Amino acid sequence: MIRRILLFAVFAIFVSNIIAADSYHIKIKINGYEEKELLLAYHLGDKQYIRDTVEIDGNGFFHFQGDEPMDCGIYLVVLKPDNNYFQLIVNEQEQDITLITDVQDLVGKASIKGSEDNQLFFDYLNYLNARTPEANSLNKSLEETTDDNEKQKIQGQLDDLNKKVEAYQKNIVEKHPGTLTAQIIKSTFRVDMPEFDGSQEEVQMKQWRYMQKHYFDNLDLENSCMLRTPFLFQRVDYFVNKLQVQHPDTIFKAIERVVDAMEPAEETYKFYVIHFLNEYATSKIVGMDAVYVQIAEKYYATGKAPWVDEEQLEKILQNVKDIKPTLIGKPAPDLLLQKREGGMVKLSEIESEYTVLYFWRFDCGHCKKSSPMLKEFYEKFKDRNVKLVAVCSKQKDELPECWKYVDENEIQDWMHTSDPYFRSMKLYNIKSTPQIFVLDKNKEILTKKIGAEQLEEVMNKIIEMDAKEALDNE
After folding, report:
1. pLDDT beyond 70 at 2
2. Strands in 373-464 per DSSP E
3. Domain 336-472 has CATH 3.40.30.10
4. With the CA atoms of 278, 280, 282 and 283 taken in that order, what torsion angle do they form, in degrees rounded to the nearest 10?
5. Global confidence as pTM
6. Count of CB atoms situated within 10 Å of the CB of 116
């Protein structure tokens, strides 16, 4: 497969061992810019936010200033009215910066005082910009030609250009190791993948495992300035959501690795602990509430989230207490159920290879939509060792309406029950109906909170996987 050269601007910050600034003054003059206001924005997570808006002064400068130092990172100088912008580095030391440029060439015409790091950064951008036309031309020729020899020739030229860019990048990294320009350029370097022996499948597995282990070799997660960059969130997201098997325990271990590495950078650590807790608190993927529980237990229950107030912490820990009993893989909480025809039955005593536990109400709109689908499901699976246990989640005085609904909709073949002690709503953390749980023969939770329209497909997959596992174990 033909490789393409990737020429792109990376963004930089500078940190040295000198004393950090105690205030900031950023003065910007843009010749040819006729608007009276200029905006300063920054990256955070996968979004950009406006930090400040200033008006032009009598000397033609836009002066961003404050009595406290700015958070280090990559800032966007945004021009009105079309939101054209260029990027500016703010590090912990160099926060008295003067920049003069031209609206026709914001990067190429930039003159900078007070920031060696920005000078290094702009020199690098200009170097890349000077080579972009050549790269674009070669890529266009590569797309248009159909001659294999010509393709090989053009690819060779692209490879040579790419090597020149890489050499320039490595030179910055080697000569300016203390700058964030160098660190962020380094963060774009590919992981050096060693040669592996074995079959194609074995080699791919070893490469994947190596990439997981070394993915952050060139990116310093301890550096607090990385939080306000356009790439950190993307890199972390890829590591967690693309580079890992999407199983709750595996995902949590990946999050744990990232967050623990960030702990020296307090604000970065805080941002990502909160981000991951919120992400898995609202995840629509079945079973991912286990990730929420593990994050809360490690970082919130142990005092490693000192920013959270007492009231919010109590809510989080109560959520964990509510969710934890019905995590996938755990034994389903046992229930003592009243059968419609009389008598009591324990959920744990219902014998079936699979049990579909269905919590419903006769006056629930979504339950009424689910009933026909469940009726069709039951007809297909009743002879496949699947039992459907329906629990009408109503008080005793309303149960006659439940049974009336059952008869009218001709679903009497299910095992119809009620919960006389009304414990199921709490034990199964049921906030609304309908709710469906699928249990195995040992009454362990296989899946939960799926829609009735999904149940047939899910059940087929469960039975298929169990049959394959049984065959493999023979």
Report:
1. no
2. 386-392, 415-418, 435-439, 445-448
3. yes
4. 150
5. 0.88
6. 16
Listed by start position, the domains of the chain span 1-189, 200-326, 336-472
**How far apart, in whole angstroms, are the C-alpha atoms of residue 159 and residue 317?**
55
- The continuous run of DSSP H or E covering 469 comes out as helix 452-472
Residue pLDDT, tens place only, 236-266 = 999 999 999 999 999 999 999 999 999 999 9
CA distance 42 to 57: 23
**Contacts for 257-261 with beta carbons within 8 Å, 24 or more apart?**
258/216, 258/221, 259/299, 261/216, 261/221, 261/222
Separation CA 453–CA 387 (nearest Å): 17
Percent over 90 (pLDDT), the chain: 90
Burial of 462 per CB tally in 10 Å (0-12, 13-18, 19+): middle
| Rounded-to-10 torsion of CA 91, 103, 172, 131 | 150
- Which residues, other chains included, contact 217 with Cβ-Cβ below 8 Å and sequence gap of 6+? 191
Contacts of 372 (CB under 8 A, 6+ apart): 409
DSSP state of 298: I
* Tokens describing residue 309: 């107030």
User: What is the number of helices (H) and of strands (E) in the chain?
Assistant: 13, 15
Asked whether the beta carbons of 388 and 415 are under 8 A apart, the reply is yes
